[in-house]
Amino acid sequence: MYDYxxxxxxxxxxxxxxxxxxxxxxxxxxxxxxxxxxxxxxTTNISIAxxxxxxxxxxxxxxxxxxxxxxxxxxxxxxGNFFKQLVVSDETGGIELRVxxxxxxxxxxxxxxxYIKAKGLWLGDYNGLTQLGAGVVGSGxxxxxxxxxxxxxxxxxxxxxxxxxxxxxxxxxxxLSLADVSTLVRFEQVQFVGADAGLPFADAVLQLTVNRExxxxxRRRLILRTSGFSSxxxxxxxxxxxxxxxxxxxxxxxxxxxxxxxxxxxxxxERCSASTMTIAAVRQIFTGSTVALPAGTIRGxxxxxxxxxxxxxxxxxxxxxxxxxxxxxxxxxxxxxxxEISVDVAGGLMSEFSGLLQIDGLPxxxxxxxxxxxxxxxxxxxxxxxxTNAQAWESTLVRISNATLSDNTIFNGSVTVSDATGSMVxxxxxxxxxxxxxxxxxxxxxxxxxxxxxxxxxxxxxASDVTGGGSGGGDDIDEPFTSVPNNVxxxxxxxxxxxxxxxxxxxAQVFSGNTYxxxxxxxxxxxxxxxxxxxxxxxxxxxxxxxxxxxKAFWVHDGLSVWISQNFNGTxxxxxxxxxxxxxxxxxxxxxxxxxxxxxVDLSGYSGTVRIGFKYTGSGPGGQTTSxxxxxxxxxxx
Length: 638
Fold this sequence. Notes:
Blueprint (H helix, E strand, L loop, with lengths): L1 H18 L28 H5 L8 E2 L5 E6 L11 E6 L2 E8 L12 E5 L4 E5 L2 E5 L1 E3 L6 E3 L1 E2 L3 H4 E3 L9 E3 L12 E9 L17 E7 L4 E6 L14 E11 L2 E5 L6 E5 L9 H7 L5 E2 L4 E6 L12 E6 L2 E7 L10 E5 L4 E5 L2 E7 L4 E5 L7 E2 L2 H6 L1 H4 L3 E10 L6 E7 L2 E7 L15 E10 L1 E5 L6 E3 L8 E3 L16 E6 L5 E5 L2 E6 L9 E6 L3 E3 L3 E10 L6 E6 L13 E2 L15 E2 L3 E2 L5 E11 L8 E11 L1
Parallel strand pairs: 4-7, 4-10, 12-13, 15-17, 22-25, 27-28, 30-32
Antiparallel strand pairs: 1-6, 2-3, 2-5, 3-4, 5-11, 6-7, 8-9, 13-14, 13-16, 14-15, 16-17, 16-18, 19-24, 20-21, 20-23, 21-22, 23-26, 24-25, 28-29, 28-31, 29-30, 31-32, 31-33, 34-46, 35-38, 36-37, 37-46, 38-45, 39-45, 40-43, 40-44, 40-46, 41-42, 41-45
């Protein structure tokens, strides 16, 4: 570069001098570099693969010996998708240099040959991606490579010829390897997954980096990562199929891909599609022992509700026109009730878990959101029909009318569902948001998923799956909390114990042999705390009163209040209408630990089904941390 600049300067001087002389023949013989630039032909003694072999992931190594390698530039920051990164490769591999420099494409365009004089640089990695930098700053988990200052780049990076052809390596999505990381790669016969096709490459408004996925015809996928600062962030991803070229990267155990500009994406062809199978056809593959599924896609509607936690976050039930099946992903998914999804089942393991047929081992990327058509229409049935057709109807939605619920007071655990034809089990996880809801009385209509745990059972998705009947509960209340162990969160049949702000709940405590419910923000780190302890529903079919006792300790604020609601659904505290009740509460002037009677709180002004809420508010260390206690809660005839 230096020789080239000197030659250019000599040319300009000669030209200017010529303009000052009378017209005559001028000798323009000067040192002009040949097309493609000059190569300093430095001696090289190491390859990129050999250099990277010196690095241990998670460590930092200073290069103290004289090593030099040559490589071609394969990255470009011209369109803003590479930032202060110079990626180079030779025939053995590629490596990224961290450089404190922008507009590097002007000096180091794609295809420029460079010599890297690595002595004095450091090897490191960013979550598995091996890099070269100028040093290390920080320590432990906060350590990172320092970028090579722009003023020092010439000491380590020596430019040579330019315009060299960089030929990407053609790979398929099942051939990814660490050896190809930081090299230029091309994938052919690929397309953006349905959920990402026709969408902006990144967020150009907020300038946020976005991950999109592309896939091959066997539904193998790779993340395309695009910067919100790139010039094409707002351009839409193609909806067709074709090829994509870019630099392969890695983040921990996940491969990623970065393009230089839109010329790297050539997808104008027809989309490919893996064979689509019905759920019934997939179920028929199972013959009694675990089987790995072939390439293929199933498509259906999600009939389970992860928001209510009625199933674990990794599981979902999928139903199409031919049947249903349970799916289990590698980690928690985000597909809501009523979502229509396509699932690549290739390599998934189909087996029975306690009698329930499921497909396990699915990566989360195997599923693609196609839309939100809404819930499926359940099949009307009697209990006997469900039991008779349990295998055929497994993992599908049914509706049972004129049923009753018994053998429990709340949904948590096993409940018996009965109609005129027979009985079966309805099971609810204790983690479900409606687990503590009181069972309705009388005849109800139940919408549920047919499942199995050694024997057929039903699973409701959320509280709205049971309609009709009485409100449940209705009995008077007399609760001394003596059945709850010391220092355990209150979890009594019909009661709701919920944190609206923070995470701490009402907890049973014992003092001087007496058990009571206590809420406190002492030693809580949350900026705000709001915990509710709510009674089971009570039917005010006659005039009734509320009585209880309250106490305080370590008083710094009034944290306790009492409320009544006629529309609380058992789960949504903030969505209900709550009215304050006037009761005598322990305050600053009362002795610590002394229980103060509330007096008779008249409920005769209310009717229908109500619930009483004891609300505690506070804040963390040094804030509002009064300990508030209640005991002997009673609702009885006035």
